[in-house]
């Protein structure tokens, strides 16, 4: 029987509430499936850890994580304690980069039992493949002078390797879906990186004659996400464009609290990291009302990645059953707690088997 060694990093804020909730669901999934088990090891790396130790994770933190099959993370960031660029670059982004988690896979679909804020949307089911290792998120740049003479430069970095890897991943994914890839571009305003992105996209697409393609500027694409999201299948994007687009993907489903994500090490050389789209939500942390569905659906993505699609699909069905029964947290205009939603999802999984 397979035993999966998973590192848990709840992180900050609601991460500490939704990770334990999702772990309960993953344990229930293993029990129902009967063909595998989990071994979870929790790490307290977070902004509170930083206040005590001056670092977000110990010096050998990455060495420690390397021994695990995958990482299940909540969210990082508590700006009242630690500046966001320090906390995120000291933990979340450090793991993504060091473990070459080159793409971030972020689905959005209209769920049964959930009212989208869009009026009368056609059913949509899309996946954003976000480049996850470079782009607009870079540490290249600097500043000179002070006061009115202050000058700040932040460089974007687009490598052929990173760009092609993300775009190709999107095409491969589209093969097993509805065979359409949209490229998120902005080559009308950004004169070097985005024309380069377009060029690589056009080169890669010649390897996939059966896949239809569209190239759309990110501003129009954002509007289309609201007006006609059903038109999209796979969208490939740079790091920042994908970041923004996937909060919007969560929003059109009903809440960013339900949007799942997976940071994938494509070669399988390092652990991949599964963490929802949302952040640590300091505004609702500690109240027991965080929506656990984003983290739980992220758990389904972990199961899919491990080859357990059947029980993964059971989780999504149980999520939809729970929504249909009206058991929802306040972000979905309900009055259930994190705990109540989690228990209902587990009960609905058991009901279906
Ligand atoms: N991957 C990560 O670890 C991310 C970390 N962050 C960090 O999180 C902190 C807060 O960032 P924000 O910009 O406020 O984004 P956020 O995603 O934490 O929250 C935005 C809004 O969505 C709500 N929300 C988010 N997740 C929810 C859930 N599961 N259930 C119910 N409501 C939910 C929040 O209450 C808030 O009103 C910052 O430190 C930020 O840097 C932000 C995004 C991603
Ligand atoms: C940092 C952040 O917002 C994200 O990776 O989605
Ligand atoms: K997250
Ligand atoms: Mn984000």
From TrEMBL:
Catalytic reactions on record? (R)-malate + NAD(+) = pyruvate + CO2 + NADH
InterPro entries assigned to the protein according to its UniProt record, in alphabetical order: ICDH/IPMDH (IPR050501), IsoCit/isopropylmalate_DH_CS (IPR019818), IsoPropMal-DH-like_dom (IPR024084), TTC_DH (IPR011829)
Which enzyme class? oxidoreductase
What are its E.C. numbers? 1.1.1.83
The cross-references to SUPFAM superfamilies, in alphabetical order and at most eight, read: Isocitrate/Isopropylmalate dehydrogenase-like
One Pfam family named in its UniProt record? Iso_dh
Look up the domain of life of the source: Bacteria
Name what cofactor the protein needs.
Mn(2+); Mg(2+)
Q: Which UniProt keywords apply?
A: Manganese, Metal-binding, NAD, Oxidoreductase
Key word Manganese present = yes
Q: Which GO terms describe its molecular function?
A: D-malate dehydrogenase (decarboxylating) (NAD+) activity; magnesium ion binding; NAD binding
Q: List residues of the Isopropylmalate dehydrogenase-like domain.
A: 5-345
Instruction: Enumerate the NCBIfam families for this protein.
Output: PRK08194.1, TTC
Sequence similarity: Belongs to the isocitrate and isopropylmalate dehydrogenases family.
What's this protein's name?
D-malate dehydrogenase (decarboxylating)
- Gene that specifies this protein: ycsA_1
């Amino acid at each position: 029987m397979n035993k999966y060694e998973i590192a848990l990093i709840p992180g900050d804020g609601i991460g500490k509430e939704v990770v334990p909730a999702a772990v309960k669901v993953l344990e229930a999934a293993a029990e129902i499936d009967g063909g595998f088990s989990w071994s979870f090891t929790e790490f307290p790396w977070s902004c509170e850890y930083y206040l005590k130790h001056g670092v977000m994770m110990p010096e050998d933190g990455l060495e420690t994580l390397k021994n695990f099959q995958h990482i299940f993370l909540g969210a990082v960031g508590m700006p009242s304690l630690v500046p966001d660029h320090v906390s995120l670059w000291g933990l979340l982004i450090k793991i993504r980069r060091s473990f070459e988690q080159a793409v971030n896979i972020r689905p959005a679909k209209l769920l049964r039992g959930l009212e989208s804020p869009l009026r009368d949307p056609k059913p949509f089911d899309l996946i954003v493949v976000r480049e996850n290792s470079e782009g607009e998120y870079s540490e290249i740049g600097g500043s000179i002078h002070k006061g009115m003479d202050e000058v700040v430069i932040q460089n974007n970095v687009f490598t052929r390797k990173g760009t092609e890897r993300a775009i190709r991943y999107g095409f491969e994914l589209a093969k097993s879906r509805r065979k359409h890839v949209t490229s998120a571009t902005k080559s009308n305003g950004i004169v070097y990186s985005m024309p380069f992105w377009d060029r690589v996209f056009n080169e890669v697409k010649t390897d996939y004659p059966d896949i239809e393609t569209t190239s759309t500027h990110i501003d129009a694409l954002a509007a289309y996400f609201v007006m006609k999201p059903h038109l999209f299948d796979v969208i490939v994007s740079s790091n920042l464009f994908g970041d923004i687009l996937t909060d919007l993907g969560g929003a059109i489903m009903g809440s960013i609290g339900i949007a799942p994500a997976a940071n994938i090490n494509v070669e399988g050389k390092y652990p991949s990291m599964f963490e929802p789209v949302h952040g640590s939500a300091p505004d609702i942390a500690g109240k027991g009302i965080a929506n656990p569905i984003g983290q739980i659906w992220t758990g389904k993505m972990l199961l899919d990645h491990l080859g357990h699609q059947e029980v993964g699909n059971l989780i999504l069905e149980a999520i939809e059953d729970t929504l249909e029964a009206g058991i929802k947290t306040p972000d979905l205009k309900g009055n259930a707690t994190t705990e109540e939603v989690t228990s209902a999802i587990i009960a609905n999984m058991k009901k279906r088997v």
